[in-house]
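Figure-free illustration: sequence to structure, shown twice.
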Amino acid sequence: MGIDDNIRNKAQDVGGQAKEKVGDTTGNEDLRDEGQQDQGSAKAKDAVENAKEKANEAVNKIKGAMKRD
């Protein structure tokens, strides 16, 4: 995962937390729900990026093993 992706995902997560808290405090259910959605989206993006990273590591490991043979 690139550092830019990490920063964007973290910003989306933190922004979502803020929206959720403001929505809770003001009784604005739509804002609260939007904040929860932002947090979920950020976590999903993190999971996808982590899966891509693991897949790339596995491919590189296989390539390395094939070169040794």
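We now fold a second protein in the same way, so the two outputs can be compared directly.
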Amino acid sequence: MTAHRLRVLTSGSVRRVHRRVARPPVRDLPPAGHRVLRQVEALNERRIAQRLKTILEVLAGRRAPAQIRPLVDEALFVRLAAHGPLPGTRYRVGDLHVCRPSETAIEASTTLSTSGRVHALAARFERGRTGWVCTRFHVLAPRTGPIRRPSAA
């Protein structure tokens, strides 16, 4: 049987140093019963794209509608849940374009490629007390009829 031994890599004796973690004084804590608002996270392009894909997965039937309830406002949730799944629909999301019309609103647009067709997607996110929620979500289908030029009248 082989005997294993550990050897010390430092010369001399090793002394452990214990550091205390600084805790906030009690007077800095909110009073009991005080409702602390959660710090609202920044919504960058990566998070916007993730949220749009999550909503698309609900529309495609690959995710339960209850999973997007905290990500969308109540009116949009009711509309998306009533829409019903579109089974077999697979999307490829294109480049995301983001606009910030105000400090509390973000508007995003992108393209969706599916079965050789390209659709446009437009969404609006607004910051509320609980964080960023999607308030508008529209998938715009391409025209099915002939393309008409606008009249010069």
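Summary for the second example: The helical segments are 45-60, 74-83.
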